[in-house]
Design brief:
The structure holds 2 protein chains of 2 kinds. Chain A is of the alpha/beta class. Chain A contains 20 helices and 14 strands. In chain A, the strands form 3 sheets. In chain A, strands 1, 2, 3, 6, 7, 8, 11, 12, 13 and 14 form a 10-stranded mixed sheet that branches. A two-stranded antiparallel ribbon of chain A has the order 4-5. In chain A, helix 2 packs antiparallel against helix 14 and helix 18 runs antiparallel to helix 19. Chain A starts with a helix and ends with a helix. Chain B is mainly α. In chain B, strands 1-2 form a two-stranded antiparallel ribbon. Chain B is globular, with a radius of gyration of 24 Å. Chains A and B meet through helix 1, helix 3, helix 11 and helix 18 of A and helix 1 of B.
Chain lengths: 457, 290
């Protein structure tokens, strides 16, 4: 055989082998049969032992009830997991079920961009009723006429204070501020500078921790960034302007935002100046006491209460809420089994176990008003009280907007917050500007995707 | 016949690279050029919109101009600074001093530290209250500088961080310095030249091609800086460190606007290409090729 033929044969063989290898790596599609061995891939942001302990026993129970189904837990770490989830789903390499750590982003954005599938097809089949969920939770998961996920829990925001710092400043350690005026008065007593003018203790840094959520202080001043019913942005509403104005004043009292942020920047990772009283008060999530303080500052002497409110806003109301959500990505290989798994995790028992373990709020009627919940997490009785108020007056709780453009608009609002904190712009000018940017963005989105944005975002 | 056979064998052995180039370089490049003329969200089909993305960039996106300006400032300051520092270090490490090999290794070590690690390290060093830099300044009675928390100082801090990574340029300069003929220094010394004149009239002209090479590479690298602003400041405070590549990333992966981000990426390519051509053009009367 000539040398040339030999080389061509080897080359040809390599191509064939390579082609076979490549084709075997591509996903195979086959018809779903009830008794096939199925692996449901479940993505969650956390590999924390606490989260495993709260969820995995129910996964094992589900596997027993559904022989042939195995659930595979995959932790996708929180840092940029929104980007990782999104690109994986867009590439067709997503899982069967995702439990997201936030509502927005990504849920409305995923829905608008067809990255997750509506769950309505399984309602009849799996006997799902809207009445299982609290009304504000239903509103979060049901928008644009479809149900896009199941809220596993919702988070409420807490006002936390260091009792030892209060005592040192001559304040009653068991009496938190209930109004913004009281908060200002406490802040004056608790903020300290050294002889060179360096900030050594702050009463409160409003934009630290969850205070950086653009909705937070706006809500406590009676404002809102988004009108859920009209599906419109209301970024420059007077109450929002008042909230931002107040934040600018607090920044000034701390010596300027650059000084305050320089002070905060030394606390990296899980270090929080609240632990040592270097920041005396902060806004935090309901999961902070069991997951953060218990772990990193078990000896901290702290109090928990609803956040203070502006004049005209009743104390204990206008609480912003977030949530974790079960969703099914487009391209889930086993949609029926995935829907069954999500519903299984929405039963009273797993919801209660998670919410007691993480000090989150149950989104379902059977969970929230179950006496075991308050027995398990006594300080969350205020969440139950707020929920009862919200049943009569929905404005008491402020869920995340279901706008799919909120991630971008929220980032513009955060820039506006910084402009006011750094004294570069007045609150009114900054928010008027952001409102214009948001309206332009919505108009552009309507042009590019009229099907979704036609009736408002 | 023999030539054909040689060509065939040549192609055969180069085929892995050719396939890799086609699949991993040419295909993505061509795709991104196509996407730059489309409206393309990460899911769904791209549809042709012509020059609209470019129009929006220039007329309707404030952050585009902010990030372009930031990148221009960053490049304008960091490139001369880094090249100068690298050259000076190379000149010093080219001298016959005891332990110069150890010093060469020490100055090159930062180059092998991953960018993310370096960024996190600098967050601690630049800390306003407890960072080493402010501690050193306080020895001279200077008040703490809000390095990363002030819009006025954050960009300066980023530029200072880049001098950490001059090891690569320094090594290239060292190689160039080895090629400077010793007789030129001897002749200059005989004519009474001191250290500064030797550097100015012998060293710099003789390594001018290497300087040009490092300047071009530094310009390209400076316009592609992403890791440090992403990790350290995320473009803040107040977009003062929002460099162009970070803005492209946010448009692509936060806002899902792949078409628009592709248009921005191609504009960046044109900027870098133009600046490279301009640098090469301007170097004609200045660079000495022996």
């Amino acid at each position: 055989m000539s040398r040339r033929r030999k080389v061509l044969r080897i080359f040809g063989a390599l191509f064939v082998v390579g082609g076979l290898l490549l084709s075997s790596m591509a996903g195979t599609v086959r018809a779903q049969r009830p008794h096939d061995n199925i692996t449901l891939t479940f993505w969650i942001w956390s590999d924390d032992p606490l989260n495993h302990a709260l969820i995995e026993p129910y996964f094992r129970q589900f596997e027993k009830i559904h022989p042939g189904i195995t659930i595979k837990w995959v932790a996708v770490p929180t840092d940029n997991n929104y980007v990782k989830y999104t690109t994986a789903i867009a590439a067709g390499r997503g899982p069967d079920v995702i439990l997201t750590p936030n509502f927005n982003p990504p849920i409305p954005e995923w829905a608008a961009n067809q990255l997750i599938q509506p769950l309505d097809p399984w309602f009849k089949q799996l006997n799902i009723s809207q009445n299982q969920w609290m009304p504000w939770v239903w509103k979060m998961q049901n928008f644009h006429g479809r149900v896009w996920g199941f809220v596993q829990e919702y988070d409420t925001t807490l006002f936390i204070w260091n009792k030892d710092a209060f005592k040192k400043a001559g304040l009653d350690p068991n009496r938190p501020p209930r109004t913004i005026a009281e908060l200002d008065a406490y802040d004056k007593k608790l903020t300290k500078f050294d002889s060179k003018g360096n900030l050594i203790q702050a009463g409160i840094v409003p934009w630290a921790q969850l205070g950086n959520d653009p909705r937070y202080w706006a809500a406590l001043f009676g404002g809102s960034l988004y009108d859920q019913d009209k599906r419109q942005y209301t970024l420059n509403a007077p109450a929002n302007v008042a909230a931002l104005d107040w934040m600018g004043k607090v920044a000034k009292s701390l010596g300027g935002a650059a000084k305050a942020n320089g002070f905060l920047n030394k606390f990296t990772g899980n270090a929080d100046p609240l632990y040592t009283g270097q920041v005396a008060m902060e806004v935090a999530g309901d999961w902070y006491p069991p997951q953060v303080y218990a772990r990193y500052a078990p000896k901290m002497n702290y109090g928990v209460a609803p956040p203070p409110t502006a004049p005209g806003v009743p104390y204990g109301t206008n609480i912003v809420i977030g949530s974790d959500v079960f969703v099914m990505p487009v391209g889930a290989r086993h949609p029926l089994e995935s829907a069954e798994l999500m519903l299984y995790m929405m039963r009273a028992d797993p919801v209660l176990k998670w919410c007691i373990g993480e000090a989150n709020v149950p989104p379902t009627v059977s969970g929230l008003f179950n006496p075991k919940y308050v027995q398990g997490v006594p300080f969350m009785s205020m969440a139950v009280q707020t929920a009862r108020m919200a049943l009569k007056n929905p404005a008491v709780l402020r869920p995340y907007p279901t706008s799919s453009l909120f991630d971008y608009v929220g980032s513009q609002y955060s820039t506006a917050m910084q402009q006011v904190e750094y004294g570069k712009m007045s609150a009114k000018a900054a928010l008027d500007n952001v409102q214009k940017v948001a309206l332009d963005y919505v108009a552009k989105a309507k042009q590019q995707n009229p099907d979704w944005y036609g009736g408002g975002d | 016949m023999r030539r054909r056979r040689e060509l065939l064998f040549g192609l055969l052995f180069a085929s892995p690279w050719i396939v890799g180039f086609l699949v991993f370089t040419l295909y993505p490049l061509s795709s991104s050029l196509y996407y730059s003329f489309t409206s393309y969200h990460i899911t769904g089909t791209p549809y042709w919109i012509g020059w609209s993305n470019f129009q929006e960039m220039f007329t309707d996106d404030n952050l585009f101009w902010v990030s372009l300006w930031n990148s221009a400032v960053y490049s304008l300051v960091s490139v001369p600074l880094d090249v100068s520092v690298a050259l000076l270090l190379a000149v010093m490490l080219n001298m016959a001093i005891p332990g110069r090999r150890i010093f060469r290794t020490i100055f090159f070590l930062p180059q092998i530290v991953p960018g993310v690690v370096m960024a996190i390290l600098f967050v601690l060093l630049f800390n306003t209250q407890d960072g080493i830099f402010n501690d050193l300044l306080s020895v001279f009675g200077i008040s703490p500088i809000p390095w990363l928390s002030s819009p006025d100082w954050a960009m300066r801090s980023l530029i200072l961080m880049t001098t950490w990574g001059v090891g690569n340029s320094m090594v290239i300069f060292l190689a160039g310095l080895q090629d400077v003929p010793a007789h030129l220094y001897e002749a200059a010394r005989l004519d009474g030249a001191g250290s500064f004149r030797l550097f100015r009239y012998v060293t710099v002209p003789m390594v001018s091609p290497v300087i040009l090479f490092n300047v071009v590479l530094s310009i390209i690298a400076s316009f592609q800086t992403f890791v440090v602003p992403f990790i350290v400041t995320n473009g803040g405070p107040l977009n003062s460190t929002m460099l162009y590549p970070l803005q492209v990333y946010l448009n692509a992966f936060q806002n899902f606007r792949m078409g628009y981000a592709s248009a921005e990426a191609w504009f960046m390519f044109l900027i870098i290409f133009g600046l490279t051509l301009l640098t090469l053009r301007l170097s004609r009367g200045v660079v000495h090729y022996s």
